[in-house]
Design brief:
By secondary structure, this protein is of the alpha/beta class. Helices cover 42% and strands 19% of the residues. It has eleven helices and twelve strands. The chain has a ten-stranded mixed beta sheet with strand order 2-1-3-12-11-4-5-10-8-9, sandwiched between helices. Helix 1 links the parallel strand 1 and strand 2 (32-35). Helix 1 crosses helix 9 and helix 5 packs parallel to helix 6. The structure holds 3-isopropylmalic acid and manganese (II) ion.
Length: 348
Amino acid sequence: MPRIALIPGDGIGQEVIPEAVRVLNELRSDLDFVDMDLGADRYLRDGTTMPDETMSDIRDNYDAVLLGALGDPRVPSNVHARDILLGMRFQLELYINLRPVQLLDPRFCPLKDKGPEDMDFVVFRENTEGLYTGIGGQFKRGTPDEVAIEAEMNTRKGVERIIRAAFEYADEQGRESVCMSDKSNAMRHGHDLWQRTFKEVAAEYPHIRAFHLFVDVLTMEMVRAPEQFDVIVTNNLFGDIVTDLGAQLQGGIGLAASGNIHPGQVSLFEPVHGSAPTIAGQGIANPLAAILSAGMLLEFLGHADQAKAVQNAVRTTLQANQVTAELGGDLRMTQVTDALLRNLGSEL
Ligand code: IPM
Ligand code: MN
């Protein structure tokens, strides 16, 4: 029986995760859910963010994690969010941050003369190194001579495995191209490693078109001609930035889902949105990104058909305007899930 750790976390995370679980329970009776007490409340109660035992428990005893959101105004340092989310990404080596960009409803398209057929690609964001490792330091802090160094770490192993994952995905899914994005015209060491590794791995997949864009050009091209992209692979920070741009291309952060994946090991699924403290607790949050993330979790567990059904049901729900106020509807959160479950019923 697959074991799923639930980390609702903070703010609207606590509301949307139970909605995603309703959808999972509708589709499967073999999932064993365990609630994890992690987040701002726990931190404020006993000062712990991500205990080592919990990390090992998740690593050893679970198949997947479904996380809501982390971030709370009562914890301005955000230390718990870093320890829990970045902690799991790094310590569980969830090296693929998979972020699909797919426009499900044409009315949310922010670009003139583009539609759902133009916005359908996935970003493979490297998730375990780059500028996120915290390697660096400060010298003469707080003085006029202060120096701050943030080192970007790129390992051959880390770069190769994310690039390979992107090509494998393109191969399996019948996608035509993989675009690698870096800044090798300015960053001569780390991004030269990306260049060489990309060429070597691409040569193993001659039937997939491999091309490269500098990241500044990539942001222009995502807006000018998004239809040219199938799979984009890039480093941790650039992936963070371009996937927020991607979220807007598909209708906003309320519809963006993601997976933090290590194939064959416990992996983490989460909506890209945050905890939205200003609307938390009112029952008006949009549950669809959490539900789409639950769909990605199903795909990871080997249920691609059910994942597809969830996505189709979300599409129907959006197109019928069975949505919350934030997307222009007049439903409350649980009513959106009710509608989605009905739409899912007609998918099956
Ligand atoms: C994301 C977030 C995180 C990131 C933050 C909260 C550290 O923006 O998941 O995209 O930068 O990875
Ligand atoms: Mn981000």
